[in-house]
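Case study 2.
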Amino acid sequence: MSKFACTCGNVISDVQCPNEVTGLLLSDKSLEAFSNAMTDTIRDYFQLAFSGQIDTWRDKHFNKAYPNDLSPADMIDDVLSSKLFELTLRVMECDVCGRLWVQEKPDVNFYHGYHPDDAADARR
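Prediction:
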């Protein structure tokens, strides 16, 4: 996404990254799943690396088009980033009215809006 029209008329933009108006929402259940994925991914990488089977690990996580010359840190980062985005919801805050827009579910471009109860909570 790059621009999102808030119901107040403001356009929320996430073209600049990082920015102050977008973020991620991670439930407790998803945080536990991500924590387990981190542990399992790193443990699995080291076990296969010590036995000289990095290609087996790479094939488990990536398709054939994935580069063979990346560092272990870059490969692990790619796996974990992918897992994080599978588990999180995107969130945007209108910098005019303070309304929060929360993604319905990962990989779905539909958002629910939540407006602050008190006008004093708006960013203005």
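The helical segments are 28-50, 54-61, 72-87.
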